[in-house]
Amino acid sequence: MTNALNLEPYWMPFTGNRQFKSDPLLMESASGMYFTTTEGRQVLDGIAGLWCCTAGHCHPAIVDAIQRQAAKLDYSTAFQMGHPGIFQLADKLTSIAPGDLDYAFFTNSGSESVDTALKIALAYHRMRGEGQRTRLIGREKGYHGVGFGGISVGGMSPNRKMFGAMLPGVDHLPHTLDRSHNAFTRGQPEWGARLADELENLVALHDASTIAAVIVEPVAGSVGVVVPPRGYLERLREICTRHGILLIFDEVITAFGRTGKRFAADTFGVQPDLMAVAKGLTNGAVPMGAVLVDSSIYQAFMTGPPHAIEFFHGYTYSGHPLAAAAALASLKVYEDEGLYDRASKLAPVFEDALHSLQGEPHVIDIRNIGMMGGVELAPRDDGPTLRALDAFRRCFDAGLLVRTVGDTIALTPPLIIDEDQIGQIVETIAKVLRSLD
Ligand code: PXG
Question: Which CATH number does 64-336 carry?
């Protein structure tokens, strides 16, 4: 099968193309917790595809909804027109979203959701006569996708350094990863809330009247699972409110149960003004993202004549019928199968299992919350990421898919995982760690 394929023309994203093409890993099919490779091997999915297949793979209800929708209405524009599914979805999403996030704007990815949220924030201030609020504040080590807005507020240098000056007027908060205080913390670290006070310093430097929004991942994912210190998000919220700055939560990874409640905003009890979601929205089955918007922000746009477009933004595929069908079916499955409760009940089991890896070779930190965890390895002397990449490949060969980000092994299994499978994940990782250079 692999031999018959011409691997060369496909420029693969976020991949070492030459290494991959010399030793490809190809998936043929998937069901529930498992992938099957083109060679017929079963691989346990430790990362829900890429933090997205919350209810496992090829869930029959989601497959059925997509198939029926494809045969009924394949496409209709979202501009000046609609279809029932997308209104049902906006209704459903805003009914489960925390606080007054009562409006939903649809996109096709997390990156588009982030850029859309940033544009809403800028336009909102301008609509209210505060057009001088143009600065955006992100955070070091943050990941907000790959659009120009997302990489500008993002804080990962490899994703930024090749791409010029990016958006002007962006500043960054310090990140909260601090092993000297917080290594091997279970859940939220006690130390670090004071890092939120750095926002006061940025306000003092730039003046609040120039700042539109602050964007953070409530739990940073791609940097290797960094859980917010106790009190940190609360303090960011308080400072933003005091200075009229919008707080955007990028919940592309954390929404839909990952932290043990529906949204990380629920888990931490902190309410954002805008929330970017994607990934789990459709269980990964059809690309879709959304920005959930506080009612007061939407209302600020509803001012001109009723026929006038209020927000000059949108995508050909915003609110795509197949994505809407997949999302409606996914949200129903999450509720019908009690996956949010399941995540919160399994979280302590997952936590114990992960922390049992403390003391295994190379492990320098373990971080976790809900059903997301990171096991950080000491970098090899011959370069960062190499040891983790070696671990990734050895886990795969042993029948387990993990994700490595830097030198951290990230684990975010589908929420349908059972206790035996959690055991299988940590046993496989322990064996692999013992075999590594
Ligand atoms: N925000 C966050 C917090 C994300 O994690 C995006 C935005 C962008 O989403 P799209 O759908 O445009 O990719 C993400 C995406 C990794 C990894 O290995 C994570 C993502 C993407 C690629 C790799 O951690 N998250």
Answer: 3.40.640.10
